[in-house]
Specification:
The complex is a heterotetramer, with 2 copies of chain A (about 190 residues) and 2 copies of chain B (about 210 residues). With about 190 residues, chain A is an alpha/beta fold. Chain A contains 11 helices and 4 strands. Chain B has a 5-stranded antiparallel sheet. Chain B is built from 7 helices and 5 strands. Classes of the chains: A alpha/beta (about 190), B alpha+beta (about 210).
Chain lengths: ~190, ~210, ~210, ~190
């Protein structure tokens, strides 16, 4: 009577199929599509987010639009189903995002969240002891840098715009994008240094 | 059944203080950071992810979240992410009649992300208190912020209140949602120096008199 | 190690917002009422009950409770009463050196239940607010009452504060403990008409200015 | 590696025995003693609590002492290790006790608590929806009776002194004690009617 999740999905999919609500081939195609998009950046994925960040580093007008109205600014890359806010890191403030109540994530831009973002450990702890959590990610913040933790409690999603690494003047967007990690857009990491 | 009636029934069933409301809770260990993580950790997770598409057209994301929150606490804490999705999809498929009937329920209308609200009750810098809305059925006010005073950062966007759309499976009229900043020192004690922000609906806030 | 130092270390380890703090939490079903219930449901439960006597002479009941509260949340919610005792007894036996040494740790001094305190800061009818003591290491202030205003029913008795005795395994100086009444309507919303009382130490309360 | 509680107790008891801290025969004797005391009322048990309640019904001076200083009043029956308060039900107010944080119970007077008292269900719900919980015990409170729920958050334990059933004038303490149920001293039941 205690079925595994695997057995339960099978039963559910069969029932939905019997009533004509899902087609296994369509399910397969959806899974393949998200796997490919994640891999090659054709859909919402870390690569897409990195492209947006790199552009903001190189294009002050895009950066201004991104901070003012992120949904409109990223529309040319991906249309958003929910509000989006971009949080710009500075020398004085670092931003981190979380969703304590479930696992809201800027997936319209970054794709599916990593397991740690959805974990009870991250959700419970990062609002209370963010410096300890960041240390587990290998981040140590300068003493005089303020730390802002953003709990995604409503439909607005957050993306962190990290600071541009030093010594990258004149770099192309493509070259810059390679420095932008997923964690740096969530706030649990810095961009790679060049 | 009227919207109000539906909300009342759900409030009776179950309200807001669930184990899902994890912010600030102790007892959880190191964050499990995985390198080279696959998109899905097992084929069945991918199928759960894809099956969400069968139930979402006729309901709201808030009702999906609220359904997950009905999991018994011990089951919630011992289930993984996609197992919790599966639990909710099974129930939503059942309530939409998808398991026993072939008629597709009508897709619902959805809000679109808008620009900043034109008018708002509170402006940047004003102090607001989080209401003790403990009978809301479903809420997106985390427990750790309840009754605390914060500072409005901005009137961020407009969106239908989650309590209603969780109760009815339909989106109601939008309200202004504010990004509010709180001092972690107030919330979690004087040895905390960070700032916390949350996005809170107008109906979850009141003027602060302090 | 000084008492203060010991408390600080424990605060770092783990503070107060644990899953054990169940008052007002949703998601739990009907109360399991058993008729003709045996004293112990299995022989091993009786042995756990009896083994508590091996560790209690050298520690406080608060440290026993605090140790149980260190259980990972999912384990707490999936363990029965005597399984939670067992978890704590194993750890207390270890920290007292009972598993590897034959020397008996010295029994500690214990407070005695006394008559009403002679002097008290607040008197019957005065309004007090529950402090937001979120860094206390161990607390007996339930989360659902934190920051609420109640009315003193009586200065009930004197007893050493649990945060200190949980941290040190020794009883410190007693403080006055007040029985305070709260309107459930304030705490859980206007559709509740009962009164709640809790026994709260002087250091967990402040004057209410409302 | 995942031992059952039964296996773990065995290991723990063996280790404590090896170091000379416990003697299995003494453990056995303790268990037998509490089982007997529970059965025949020679130790803290429902029978002892019922005796105290019946006396309070018949003896106004004892009742007054019990409400004023319960530890002193019950000393002739059982000495208490912690403070004790007795809550007298009236036509206007009914009392219920709980311990939301663990399972504190007036065991110095009533013996070990029943499993439901220690359950997550009772602990979480009775402070929030006491009328619903009492209904599960078969209790329906008159509309105009106030309900006080006492959370045993400190070392003080609570015992409810229920109202004396009607039509028991002139009854002996022994006869009255037979009407006093465990649940009526916790607040989740009424005394038996005669």
């Amino acid at each position: 009577m205690n079925l595994t999740p695997e057995e339960r999905v099978e039963i559910l999919e069969r029932q939905l199929h019997d009533q004509g609500h899902v087609d296994p081939d369509t399910i397969d195609a959806h899974i393949t599509a998200i796997e490919e998009a994640t891999e090659d950046g054709t859909g919402p994925s870390t690569a897409l987010g990195a492209k947006v960040v790199a552009r903001a580093w190189n294009d002050p007008q895009f950066r201004a639009r991104l901070l003012d109205d992120a949904v409109a600014a990223v529309a040319e890359y991906a249309s958003q189903a929910v509000p989006l806010a971009v949080l710009a890191d500075t020398e004085a403030v670092h931003h981190v995002i979380v969703c304590t109540l479930c696992s809201c994530y800027p997936s319209g831009l970054l794709g599916n969240p990593p397991a740690w973002y959805k974990s009870f450990e991250y959700r419970s702890r990062v609002v209370r002891e963010p410096r300890a959590v960041l240390a587990e990610f290998g981040m140590e913040l300068p003493e005089d840098m303020a730390l802002h933790v953003h709990d995604s409690t409503a439909e607005q999603r957050y993306l962190v715009l990290p600071m541009r690494p030093a010594g990258t003047q004149g770099w192309s967007e493509e070259r810059l994008a390679a420095l932008v990690t997923r964690d740096s857009m969530v706030g649990t990491g810095w961009p790679l240094s060049h | 059944m009227s919207t109000r009636r539906a909300i009342d029934e759900i409030v009776t069933l179950r309200a807001v203080d669930g184990v899902h409301d994890l912010g600030g809770m102790h007892g959880f260990g190191a964050v499990p950071i995985e390198t080279g993580e696959p998109l899905f950790h097992a084929p069945w997770e991918g199928r759960v992810w894809a099956l969400l598409g069968a139930v979402m057209p006729a309901t709201t994301i808030d009702r999906f979240r609220w359904t997950i929150e009905q999991m018994p606490p011990a089951e919630y804490l011992t289930s993984g992410y996609y197992a919790r999705w599966l639990w909710a999809i099974e129930r939503l498929a059942n309530e939409q009649g998808l398991l026993t009937g072939s008629a597709e329920p009508a897709p619902i209308a959805r809000p679109k992300p808008s620009s900043r609200p034109a008018t708002a009750r509170w402006q940047r810098g004003e102090r607001v208190r989080v209401l003790n809305r403990v009978s809301a059925g479903h809420t997106r006010v985390p427990r750790y912020l309840r009754r605390h005073v914060g500072t409005v950062e901005r009137a961020a966007f407009s969106w239908p209140p989650p309590a209603e759309s969780a109760a009815t499976g339909r989106y109601g009229n939008a309200e202004v949602v504010y990004t509010v900043a709180f001092a972690a020192a107030d919330v979690f004690g004087p040895d905390h120096d960070h700032t916390l922000t949350a996005d809170l609906g107008e109906s979850d806030l009141e003027d602060s008199v302090t």
